[in-house]
Amino acid sequence: MNIAGYIDHTILKPTTTLAEVEKLCGEAVKYGFAAVCVPPSFVKRADAILDPTDVKVATVVGFPFGYSATEAKLAETVLALVDGADEIDVVINLIALRMNDWDFLVKEVKLLAEVIRNKGKVFKLIVESGILSDNEIIECCEKLGNAGIDFMKTSTGYAEKGATVEAVQLMRKHLPSNIKIKASGGIRDFEFAKKLVDAGADRLGCSASVAIVTGDPSFDTKGY
């Protein structure tokens, strides 16, 4: 399996430097990763580096907790698109989810989806599956799967539990067939990465990407 083509090579730690982002981009080109995922302030630089290549630039909105006002998420999204982002990974409002305010969630997702889709870009919705019940994951799939997203993503990598095979399988069972899945959080070796793909993941968010493709744990940067 060519696992590299599934990977969003990621660095989202709050102390990220420009040198680290430039290194990340170079590794993405070298190993053939699908995308890099960088903090919003580095999107413009990553886009300049990767523009001549097929590697996409992803960034995050409402990260990592998701409870930013919709207006703030909208502003972040617009700026990311202006700066050159190809893919936008948006954290769901977990407060609204826990309060069963699905009307709010659908409205927010549809608003952001319209902006992202109008630019021909990709919308990934992060639901933080590791802290949700199975029923909550199913509701996310059933209520938000048709709200304009392209991917449902398991995790930010900052909760106490990241991606699991079981969560990916549950999403695949309940999402519309055209909606893809991104697994992220705690993926540190090839074996686990392959299990997630076999379970239905179309993309993997990893900071240990080079370690995964080379089998050399010394390349595990722990940049999530």
TrEMBL record:
Protein localization: Cytoplasm
Domain of life: Bacteria
Catalytic activity: 2-deoxy-D-ribose 5-phosphate = D-glyceraldehyde 3-phosphate + acetaldehyde
Organism of derivation: Pinibacter soli
Cited HAMAP family: DeoC_type1
Reported function: Catalyzes a reversible aldol reaction between acetaldehyde and D-glyceraldehyde 3-phosphate to generate 2-deoxy-D-ribose 5-phosphate.
Pfam families: DeoC
Active-site annotation: D89, K153, K182
Pathway note: Carbohydrate degradation; 2-deoxy-D-ribose 1-phosphate degradation; D-glyceraldehyde 3-phosphate and acetaldehyde from 2-deoxy-alpha-D-ribose 1-phosphate: step 2/2
MF GO annotations: deoxyribose-phosphate aldolase activity
Gene3D superfamilies referenced in this protein's UniProt entry, alphabetically: Aldolase class I
InterPro entries named in the record: Aldolase_TIM, DeoC, DeoC/FbaB/LacD_aldolase, DeoC_typeI
SMART domains in UniProt: DeoC (SM01133)
Keywords per UniProt: Cytoplasm, Lyase, Schiff base
Coiled coil regions in record: none
Descriptive protein name: Deoxyribose-phosphate aldolase
EC number: 4.1.2.4
Family: Belongs to the DeoC/FbaB aldolase family. DeoC type 1 subfamily.
